[in-house]
Amino acid sequence: MNLNPYHFSMKVQGIDVHYELYDRHSSKPVMVLIHGFLSSTFSYRRLIPLLMNEYRIIAIDLPPFGKSEKSLKFVYSYRNMAKVVIEVLERLQVKKAVLVGHSMGGQISLIAAKENPELFDKVVLLCSSSYMKRVHPYLILGSYIPYFHLYLKQWLAVQGVWKNLCNVVYDRSMIDQEMMDGYMQPFHDDRIFMALTRLIRDREGDMDPFELKKIETPSLLIWGEEDKVVPVSVGRRLSKDLPNATFYSLKQTGHLVPEEKPDYVSERIFNFCV
């Protein structure tokens, strides 16, 4: 077994999309990992080693995050990102997959499952973004101000990687230099701030209950009870709106479930996918 990923870049909708492939020639079932906002495939670094014994793993950097291109021409809507995921898998000739999405990646996973239910036989949602409205019209209007991306960069700099990580984990002692460097690395490229400006304009709101009730794909929901970003109450509501959902919550766990409780998450995924 290859413990190191194969790194690839695929041209999708005119931009380079980076993805990592674990166990390249395996006949094992496919599992696709989709990260959250301001994150990348790095967020699954603790979970992948626990899953790759049983699955062929494909981890995708959604544009403009991670190593994917930070284009100013791409439409950064959730539905378009879901189309990117679907196209990558179709071009890799994947016929069936388990789709795992964390935070924003969870909402994109739900959209992908709704758009192409034949491709995804199960969906795993880790503290999934849900019921969020589109950003305020004033912020969308403000994004057209010249050099708005510099304001955005300054705002993120003030927040800082340490403060952001403290907001998404329960146990701050797990935050080390490797973790901070990994989450900070994509932001060394200033083009991401211009792309994030486009994302502010393009991102639609999350799916409403009426749309969610149409998703028949079996769904596993795992939430941290101390989640400050997407509260556990949102997860419980989502589990009621999805027709075939199984819900679990974890005490003393924040938003970054794949980093905080990888053993528990992998065990639940294995039981769910049997």
Automatic annotation (TrEMBL):
<keyword id="KW-0378">Hydrolase</keyword>
<dbReference type="GO" id="GO:0016787">
    <property type="term" value="F:hydrolase activity"/>
</dbReference>
<feature type="domain" description="AB hydrolase-1">
    <location>
        <begin position="204"/>
        <end position="262"/>
    </location>
</feature>
<dbReference type="InterPro" id="IPR000639">
    <property type="entry name" value="Epox_hydrolase-like"/>
</dbReference>
<feature type="domain" description="AB hydrolase-1">
    <location>
        <begin position="29"/>
        <end position="131"/>
    </location>
</feature>
<dbReference type="InterPro" id="IPR000073">
    <property type="entry name" value="AB_hydrolase_1"/>
</dbReference>
<dbReference type="InterPro" id="IPR029058">
    <property type="entry name" value="AB_hydrolase_fold"/>
</dbReference>
<dbReference type="Pfam" id="PF00561">
    <property type="entry name" value="Abhydrolase_1"/>
</dbReference>
<protein>
    <submittedName>
        <fullName>Alpha/beta fold hydrolase</fullName>
    </submittedName>
</protein>
